[in-house]
């Protein structure tokens, strides 16, 4: 067993022979961002600050349903409820509406945790095997590598698209064509992947949407009940005086509230046990897979701690929007060094990871 310190090996900081002097140019161009080199299928706006999936056509539908339903509520239900109940109803509805829309936009436009791919020459250097005789022979990298996480074996898979070993809980999204850290799922309703950097926004969105939909549904039912009771005293038909749009609003809320509440409950379960949708669907830590693979190595065995680690932890930095270093910086690794620790390529900089996640040490099995 071998421990690997978390360190950054910067090729630009390595000493170069005195015979080779770096050439200086007068016109220095801005280094290209990593998303400009390998954008995958994502679309980047505002210098990479806004990220969207290529197929994001359902996002306007999601936003439109929220705005239309809320607009009908404020236009047809709030005036009657303010008159007969309290003025707090539109205030509560407005706060929930703002929170829902804000969480949705944050989920849709935030980098989910995309890991940039390696450059072709760097991937070739890692995949080369330098034997002791000095002859260079090419061998494809192994498909898996084993590490120990809390005394449990976890297999790291090699991504042949991104040319790197995926860190723990990382998966390659077929829709976005990128590896995403702590990949949960690709959600077409928000037009983005849900991963390490935007899961907290996604969870806030579905929970707040559950409250917002339940609140509107309850207010609409209360509105119709009070109106029917008032007109029953006058022997008039209350439904004839009710706007058809109120009925449309009631139908939308009725058919959407069950799926939203179920989704919120499912993700609350995942947060409580520090799981992802991808892991739950595959049954990665199910006891049915055998005693050796049973148990979630990422859980803290405490629901409160799991919730804090998933939703309240520090926001990790964006890897895909780092500047790409100059092409002249190269680093050739020996095969022994390649086997000694897992490597994650980030442009021309090589990060040797011990994979510290949530204050845990991940050890490599050699």
Q: How are the strands of the largest sheet arranged?
A: 9-8-7-16
Average per-residue pLDDT, rounded, comes to 73
Rg estimate, integer Å = 27 Å
Provide the succession of SSEs.
EHEEHHEHEEEEEEEEEHHHHHEEE
- Report helical residue fraction: 25-40%
Q: How would you classify the helix and strand content by structural class?
A: alpha+beta
Count of DSSP-assigned helices:
9
The total domain count is 1
Task: Give a brief rundown of this model.
This protein has 366 residues and is α+β, with helices and mostly antiparallel strands. It contains nine helices and 16 strands. Strands 9-8-7-16 form a four-stranded antiparallel β-sheet, with no helix packed on it.
Give a verbal description of the structure:
40% of the residues lie in helices and 16% in strands. It has 366 residues and is α+β, with helices and mostly antiparallel strands. The strands form 6 sheets. A 4-stranded antiparallel beta sheet has the order 9-8-7-16, with no helix packed on it. Helix 2 (58-84) crosses helix 5 (199-232), helix 3 (88-109) packs antiparallel against helix 5 and helix 5 (199-232) runs antiparallel to helix 6. The N and C termini lie close together (6 Å). The chain crosses the membrane at residues 58-76, 82-105, 201-226, 246-272. It holds the Pfam family DHHC. Belongs to the DHHC palmitoyltransferase family. It comes from Hucho hucho (huchen).
